[in-house]
Amino acid sequence: MAIVQVVQWDDSLNSNDILAWRYVDRKNPAKSDELGNWTQLVVRETQEAILFKDGQALDLFGAGRHTLSTSNIPMLGGLLKLATGRESPFKASVWFVNKVNILDVKWGTQNPILLRDPEYQIPIYVRAFGQFGICVAESRQFVLKLSGNKSSITRNEVAEYFKGLILSRMGDMIATYIARKKINIFEISAYLEDMSNEAVEKIRPELALYGIEPLNFYFGSVNVNDEDEGIKKLKSAMAERASMNVMGTSYQQKRSFDVMESAAKNEGGSSLLGAGVGLGAGMGMGGAFGQMASQMGQYINPQTVSPNPSTPTVTPQASGSVCPSCGQPVIAGAKFCMNCGAKLVCSNCGQPIIPGAKFCMNCGQQI
Asked: What is the rounded distance in angstroms from the CA atom of residue 67 to the CA atom of residue 248?
């Protein structure tokens, strides 16, 4: 009498979680691998069955009912010893491979990826997660590569096997989009579809080595922690840049305005004048300095008429001396050079400064 009459998938197994299962007779587990020529092998749709003997995959069976015999398994006849007889039970095992499409395998970064913002070079920590779909394309290769001494292969185990590979490939892709393609982290959501399409092709060759085919790959989100200090700095810098763009000023001009505002709060004229020099140097050839120079030119233009007829028109004349810093002529009585902003008189006593001196010869004030 046959020891094993029917070999088929166990209905108690969850076909959504189990990708491959080695047949076990629930009534008599010790006899699960004793098969005979009369054994009926039942393979369901979306399944394939592989017959193994001595660790060797003998044949692959598709959906349907199959009678195991040496006639339909040519390699089996050569492996069986003559002493056992052709009708005697023989040792062999059957693996069922579930070829259903698994579409909801989750993935995600356990630790944030450290990158630099492409524009501001501020370090930020980026996180990503999503899901992908797979199916078993080559049953033999899948079982031989991943089964080992186990009795089943689950989709969670497969996801764990390839977690390092997926995170490595996805980390490289995120870095490529942010660092190389100069995509801002707050704009990367617009590129998730492109990234998803590229991701499938990146992991396909790696999974194919194990008989697995990727069906799709999705980036659910690429995001950052809003409480991270780097993100706070980045948002602040972007807000300041947006504000300057609205006002039509440059970063150098903005910094010069800040210096002038700070100096205006200090007491004493020398501080304010020093801030004015800093403003001129910081703004360089910018439009704001040009406007200041234009306004100041109204007061040194000999053609300027005083708005008060009783007040005589002031027409400063050149002093005949030159700026010790830039060599340009200076206006008589000027405390600063109108060309380079260098100080011409001592801020303490108001006496002229000798070119190259480090201290005022009149009061000893450090220059």
From this structure: 84
Q: Is the dihedral of CA 300, 305, 307, 311 positive or negative?
A: positive
The whole-chain average pLDDT of the chain stands at: 78
Residues 196, 32: Cα–Cα separation, whole Å: 44
Structure token digits, residue 127:
């996180």
DSSP 8-state assignment for residue 327: -
Nearest residue to 73 (alpha-carbon basis) of 97, 99, 49, 96: 49
Most distant pair of Cα atoms in the chain: their distance: 137
Q: Could you read off the pLDDT of 38-89 as tens digits, one per residue? A: 788 999 999 999 998 877 888 899 999 998 876 656 555 554 443 344 444 6
Report how far residue 138's alpha carbon sits from residue 136's, in angstroms, rounded to the nearest whole number. 6
Count the neighbouring beta carbons within 10 Å of the beta carbon of residue 47: 22
Q: How many Å apart are CA 150 and CA 24, to the nearest integer?
A: 12
CA atoms within 13 A on the CB side of 182: 2
Q: 3-state class of 209 per DSSP?
A: coil
The confidence score (pLDDT) of residue 261 equals: 60
3-state secondary structure of 175: helix
Give the three-state DSSP class for 253: helix
SS3 335: coil
| C-alpha span between 168 and 122 (Å, rounded) | 22
Which pairs from 197-202 meet CB under 8 Å and 24+ separation? 198/173, 199/132, 199/169, 199/170, 199/173, 200/132, 202/169, 202/173
Instruction: Name 15's Cβ contacts closer than 8 Å, sequence gap at least 6.
Output: 9, 98, 100
Give me the mean pLDDT over the 166-171 stretch. 92
Span 107-166, pLDDT tens digits: 999 889 999 999 899 999 999 999 999 999 999 999 999 988 899 999 999 999 999 999
pTM (2 d.p.): 0.62
Q: How far is CA 164 from CA 108, 156, 170, 172, 245, in A?
A: 11, 14, 10, 12, 43
Q: What is the Cα–Cα distance from 150 to 137, expressed in whole angstroms?
A: 20
Contact (CB, 8 A) for 32 and 25: yes
Amino acid at 237: A
- How many Å separate Cα 186 from the centre of its chain? 11
